[in-house]
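name: query_chain
kind: protein
chains: 1
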Amino acid sequence: MSGSLPLAADSVSPFARFGGNPVLCAVAAVSTVAGWIAAAMIVAAVLITCQMIFVRFVLNVSTVWQTETVIYLSISATLLGLSYVQLLRGHVNVDLIPLALGRRARTLLFWFTSVLSIIIVAVILWYGYDLWQLAWSRGWRSETVVGVPLWIPYLAIPVGFGLMLLQLMADLAAVALGHDRPFGLEG
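structure:
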């Protein structure tokens, strides 16, 4: 079976879907790093939450920065993790329609949904960048005691959706180059 495509995306490394193409593998590597950063942000948010509970209920001291930090970390982790989840094909996925379709119809559906996804993510990236740039140029700060410069948490929007866009384009290119199958399905 050497040289043939895998039967299922779950049975091989996500990098194998890109057939050794250096550009596609680089995008997969960047998505993997983003996934690790997102995981670290979630761990940090959990640790800060534990610290906040201890400080507030055991030491009976007010918390100032913890709630806002946990919120920003959780949202940023979600956005930065988008490309990694796409790389692993971990998004909620219903294969009922692609499985019911023939090879040609499945390919057409893949191209339609991929291009539509790329367009939607590109629009979100555009407006996310605009929001980030506005917060940066106007010096917006959160309306809390800490007064976090909002460009910092807003940066997760263009970065996260930019990485998602790259991963979607890499997935599309992998199918176009014959390294992967539409929806990762055989035949």
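note: Residues 1-10 have pLDDT under 50 and may be disordered.
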